Amino acid sequence: MSGPHDDLFAVIGLPHPDRAPLPPAAPGGPGVRVLRGVPYAEVPGSRPLELDLWLPERGEGDPPSALMLAVHGGAWRYGRRGDMGYRMRDWRPGPFARFVAAGFVVAAVDYRLNGEATFPAPLDDLRAALRWLALRSGELGVDTGRTVVWGESAGAHLVSLLALGGDVPVTGAIAWYGPSDLTLAGDDPTTPEALLLGGAPTTRPDLARQASPLAQVRPGAPPFLLVHGEEDTLVDCEHSRRFAARLAEVGARVDLRTVPGAEHVWHGLGDGEVEEIFAGSLEWARDRVRWGGE
Question: What is the rounded CA–CA span in Å between residue 73 and residue 70?
């Protein structure tokens, strides 16, 4: 379809995410507004990429809030943008409302999974989300110069790469039980790492290194908080230990917390222990974005 149809497409097509009006807000709890399903990018031949926004109730003249970019896990194959892991699904208030109460605007973001596209597509999507958030920051009341990225599992892997890229402003990165070295997955073409890369890491060594946060550590990296269960059988805790050591080698600030008795996604811990891990991580995030902070 081309030629005389072009003008018609221009009329009937949806407005580009850069210009589209924001959807109406719904209540998200005391002092919280939620905008669900906000398109942030168009990818030809793919579904629109969307995010949910959790915003504080604002008064005229209120200063902009810091940004929290929340990235879900799911082995790069599953997961939903509204989910930060099964241990927090029944929290009331939920984790995003708690982020807002701590002073953040929250963007819970979709990205393409490995049944839709291979690496670096999901990382490109997160970069696109931060670009859109910066573009619309005035409407949203957000200061993208104070941005913390927080991910769990596969989401932790992606936010680590996002923070290390140096091409988008990141004030701090929180990575819960994330893989840092994809080259360790070997030659099995069915692993989550292989499906992300489009082939076993041994057949795509350059891409596997490009997709490994451990190999992308650079001087000037932003501060990192790494939290990992010592009994993790899905992503060995050694991933975070080695990643922390490499960050420290280049002089980056890194805080490593390993959690005894904890499996992946905090399985095996009591509710109070999970609450404590979350609260400590959130306080770390607040410290990074305080006015005049480091």
Answer: 10
d(CA 134, CA 143): 8
Give me the residue spans of the domains in the chain.
24-289
DSSP 45-112: TSPPEEEEEEEE---TTPPPEEEEEEE--STTTS--TT-S-GGGTT-SS-HHHHHHHTTEEEEEE---
pTM of the entire predicted model: 0.94
Separation between Cα atoms, residue 203 and residue 109, nearest integer Å: 31
The two tokens of residue 102 are 């701590």
Q: Is 287 helix (H, G, I), strand (E, B) or coil?
A: helix
In tens, the pLDDT along 52-88 reads 999 999 888 899 999 999 999 999 999 999 999 999 9
Kindly give the residue spans of alpha helices, DSSP state H, lying in the chain.
5-12, 95-101, 121-135, 137-140, 154-165, 192-197, 205-210, 213-216, 238-249, 271-289
**237 residue type, one letter:** C
Which token pair is 59?
């008064």
CATH superfamily of 24-289: Alpha/Beta hydrolase fold, catalytic domain (3.40.50.1820)
CA atoms of 207 and 174, how far apart (whole Å): 24
